[in-house]
Amino acid sequence: MNFTRFNAYQIMWVLVFFDLPTETKKDRKAASKFRKRLLDDGFTMFQFSIYLRHCPSRENAEVHIKRTKMNLPAHGQVGILKVTDKQFGNMEIFHGHKISENPAPVQQLELF
């Protein structure tokens, strides 16, 4: 058997940044639908318009990126960033002047 060992360079984080219009009822509905689909796909809100997801591999990250691209709203800006677990671990997060811990990966059950 050939086992692939997961390491901090293969485990990925996918970050989705967005700035969506909310002037009209239609715009607000589209923005809400986009956020809901991110949550349904296992993303977690990091900040109001930044969502992130822990992925066990690059291939798994690509699946979620593709799914996000299929759900893009008609208007607004959306950015998708894929970083390794090692890079993500180097992020410094502050609440006021106090440093806080990086978000821990969510336990996810994967069936093969």
From TrEMBL:
Organism, scientific name: Putridiphycobacter roseus
This protein's name: CRISPR-associated endoribonuclease Cas2
Cofactor: Mg(2+)
Tree of life domain: Bacteria
Enzyme Commission number, as recorded: 3.1.-.-
Keyword flag Oxidoreductase: no
Pfam families: CRISPR_Cas2 (PF09827)
UniProt cross-references to InterPro entries, sorted A to Z: CRISPR_associated_Cas2, Virulence_VapD/CRISPR_Cas2
The keyword Zinc-finger is annotated on this UniProt entry: no
Family: Belongs to the CRISPR-associated endoribonuclease Cas2 protein family.
Underlying gene: cas2
NCBIfam families tied to this protein: cas2
Keywords: Antiviral defense, Endonuclease, Hydrolase, Magnesium, Metal-binding, Nuclease
Assembly information from the UniProt record: Homodimer, forms a heterotetramer with a Cas1 homodimer.
